[in-house]
Amino acid sequence: MSKTQLKLIKFKRSIICLVIVLLITLSVEFSPAKVLAAEDIATESSDIYSDYLKAVMDMIKGSYVEEVEEDQLLEGALKGMLGSMDPYTSYYTRSEADVFFSDVEGTYQGIGVVIEKKNEYVFISKVFPGSPAEKSGLLQGDIIVTVNGENVTGMSVEEVAGIIKGEVGTKVTIGILRGNDSKIRNFDVERMSIKINPVTYEIIGDIGYIKIEIFNANTSEFLKAALKEIDAKGIKKIILDLRDNPGGLVDQCVAVAQHFVPKGLITKLEFRSQQLADQEYYSYLQKPKYKLAVLINGMSASASEIVAGAIQDTGAGTIIGTKSYGKAKVQSMLPILSPQAYKKYSDQVGLKSVNAYDLLINYNINPLDSEVIGWTKITTGMYLTPKGNMIDGIGITPDIEVEDTELVQGIDVRNIQKLTKTWKPTLGDEGYDVYNAEKILKVLGYDVDEPDTVLDEKTFKAVWKFRTDKGLYPGGVLDFTTQDYLNKELDNIIMTYDKQYAKAIEILMGS
Questions:
Q1: I want to staple 138 with a disulfide (CB 3.0 to 4.6 A). Which of 133, 225, 301, 400 is the partner?
Q2: pLDDT tens string 421-437
Q3: Does the structure show a pLDDT above 70 at 225?
Q4: What is the pTM of this model?
Q5: Given its phi and psi angles, is residue 376 left (phi above 0), alpha (psi -120 to 50 degrees) or beta?
Q6: Are 437 and 464 in contact (CB under 8 A)?
Q7: Which range marks the domain in which residue 309 is found?
Q8: CATH number for position 119
Q9: What integer pLDDT is reported at residue 27 of this predicted model?
């Protein structure tokens, strides 16, 4: 089964709901004369525009200095037409659509590492928790020298990634150099379909902190896991951080809201077309069990605003920060048939639609990859908060307004991650733990260059000074004790400079 067929099947249910409503609401009585007149006018107008667009394409092909493919002109026309609507409606080629679906579906095929290049070598800068790479023993800082016995020294990141990738369930052998070792170590790693986790959480005393980066298809699953651990420790106070969250899938943000919003309406979706019925989403929570503080800012948008709006309207929590982005428009992804496929299915089943979903829904036909020229992300509706507020272009005003965090030494302290204590970087090592350690040191005023992933001589000396300042044994290695101290300093940095987070702690501690 092709990728396009799988996507069509996966998104079939939500599209069917819209089409069924459309068919029902079109069951209205018209006089035959009016129908015929409308059809005649529509046909005549359609013919004029079809002839005009064909004439424009002929003019370009006849006048442009170079050879022009019709598919190139067609894609340009589609991008132009769909791009002329609101900022959220656009056309995607098949490759662009694959990237978009990968983001919202929250999965990718691989071994679970981030790789970067330094000089002639590609090295592992990050290993995702629970990934095949972590389970096999690969670490941050490992230099990849061979893949399946092939020397990859000098290759680009893209070339090495292309060799590592492969069919799910198969294994790849990664040969690495670690630290000062001169002998290559080989690791057999199974390729898997890896879920991207958009949820991070931490327990601070009797408060649970949950950050949601985006509402992809995995958000609800990973939120449940976070809440399970929080509940196991008897914690009843939660900070929900939605800052910089651009939104995502409606079903996922509703699933998140259902953990916090009391029984009743979460959001109402209103379609612009009178032919489509509105949709309502509800919570069935009898009584919220958390004291909740929600952080938002100017980049909290769309699905994030659905959650924040529901929490604010129902009094389920306190909204803290700055006014949100203000996007209440909802989009759907629709597959576009190629001209050849359009003619083929028009002849076969009488379909006069470029929307490939119509084939699946009405005729149970799955078009091939080659028969879908691209996809459109198109605005189909607007949503309201439980109290009926329309926040598009307006945003959500926090209950407590607190200014956004300013950069400290050019660094956004909210984006510093705690050191993992999975390895002990030393001089010349590379990895994300080094990157975050340099950020912490720089904010604290130590002499380091612009943070990167390399523990160079300057960083080594800064770590040495930090260790001696803390009464530790002299040295520039980021051992686990040093990482502990840096993590504690990060807690202090966040409380000092992230005033929105500090206000949330204050509100929850006072309850």
A1: 133
A2: 988 999 998 888 999 99
A3: yes
A4: 0.83
A5: beta
A6: no
A7: 1-30+86-106+197-404
A8: 2.30.42.10
A9: 28
